[in-house]
Amino acid sequence: MNTQGRPTRLAQDVDPGAYDDTLSGSRGLEQAEPLLFERGSLDVTGVDLPEPKGTQSRLGNVERKGVIGLPGLSEPEAMRHYVRLSRKNYAIDLGLYPLGSCTMKHNPRLNEKMARLPGFADVHPLQPEQTVQGAYKLIEELARWLMVLTGTPAVAMSPKAGAHGELCGMLAIRAALDARGEKNRRRVLVPESAHGTNPATAVQCGFYCDAIPADATGRVDMEAFKAKLGDDVAGIMLTNPNTCGLFERDIREIADLIHEAGGYFYCDGANFNAIVGRVRPGDLGIDAMHINLHKTFSTPHGGGGPGSGPTVFSEALAPFAPLPFVVKTKDGASLKMAENECDVDGTGATPFGRMTAFHGQMGMFTRALTYMMSHGSDGLKQASEDAVLNANYILASLKDVMTPAFEGTCMHEALFDDRFLKDTGVTTLDFAKAMIDEGYHPMTMYFPLVVHGAMLIEPTETESKSGLDRFCDVLRGLTEAAKAGEADRFRAAPVHAPMRRLDETLAARQPVLRWTPPVADAAE
């Protein structure tokens, strides 16, 4: 699972501990909770309703012919089951989320309130246009904010996530190259410090990747970059700030060189939250960039999704932006759904196609615009500055005991390697597992791959100084314990979590996704 071959199971001579010190299996307020199938019964139900009489089923030949196979629970049992499961999850409402390159920031409740307003929460993509003019106006306003913040003239709102936005940008680049009659350009330069999805997206679009190594500072090696330029280069996919948490200082020169070579500049905008209000990517020479609304503008992330990844374009790529898109009309606004509707004003628009059936994620649009309007331009700028400040505070607070991967300051995330754990018998994975016992979600581990034993920490702008101090105190204490020879403590961790350490490699390769009843003992 990892090229460094990190161990994913407990050492054989380490006692992991267990919940065998209580009769119930629970510990105080931490309730033990089995699977529903283990505690419920298939022959009972928590609903006490009589069988209907004198009725005839209207399901025809699709009526259920066998038992459904779900366990029956009383209402309190079902409620307690899910409440107890929720207590086993880490959440931003519980504590700091230090995952690097993920931006697990607080989602203001105001955003949720606005997204639930009638007309937004219940809007349907198949409604007549005259009934969704408010939704069109909101999309148009959000698009305006995105174009102003990025310094670009066009944006596609339909991509549903970051990687979807990458796909949008690279398909536009391919369409532009094909329109120029340069189908020979299929090589995409991808720095080692770029986001991991970038190479996969390029290949998905029919390109092949050529890696650019990082220099000693963690940024693009300019000599290696220049050596790889040629007439078959389609463009570059660069993340800025990159996944080492560093700003690419040579980005303007990179843009100029890739354009001189006839290629396009795709910028991964996953870390845009570090520079909003301070830098406009359009001024840096980018041709396309996706924006993760969930990372930069506070909409729910991951399991709280769905995501949203609008993609902005330069003048060179704007004509190839995908369908559909909102345009102003004399009667309000309309959604252009077909290619023959696009070039009625002679703009030369030739969309490469369409990304989705409809036009993006309305709930995410509402949340993101709420966040923007409640902060204002000055507030968005301060949020970025505070994110960078918090990351550098962590870096400065821990650099005397942990080992920063690179010299100098960082952007929105602090990156450490595992040199401080040398000869302790403790690995990055062990260190992260010990953080769980301390009540913290681990930071991003072993990524970026250019740093050995990487520990990537992103506090975001939403954490207070006292919260950061407490977090740093814990990491400092764990570091001192590792250097003091307490390796067994780390290899046993987590001890206080609901589950012990698992064999993660085996679980990934042989997942058990279906519960089966235990086989009765033959002796019984």
Task: Describe this structure as you would to a colleague.
By secondary structure, the chain is an alpha/beta fold. It has 2 domains: 1-31 and 87-107 and 382-524, Aspartate Aminotransferase, domain 1 (Alpha-Beta Complex); 131-360, Type I PLP-dependent aspartate aminotransferase-like (Major domain) (Aspartate Aminotransferase, domain 2), CATH 3.40.640. It is built from 14 helices and 13 strands. It has helices at 36-39, 75-86, 109-115, 133-150, 162-179, 197-204, 222-227, 251-260, 293-296, 362-398, 428-437, 465-483, 487-492, 504-509, and strands spanning 154-156, 187-191, 208-212, 233-239, 264-268, 288-290, 311-313, 325-329, 332-336, 403-404, 414-417, 444-445, 455-457. A 7-stranded mixed β-sheet has the order 1-7-6-5-4-2-3, with helices on both faces. Strands 10-11-13-12 form a 4-stranded antiparallel β-sheet. The protein has a two-stranded antiparallel sheet with strand order 8-9. α8 links the parallel β4 and β5. The longest helix is centred in the last third of the chain and has 37 residues, at 362-398.
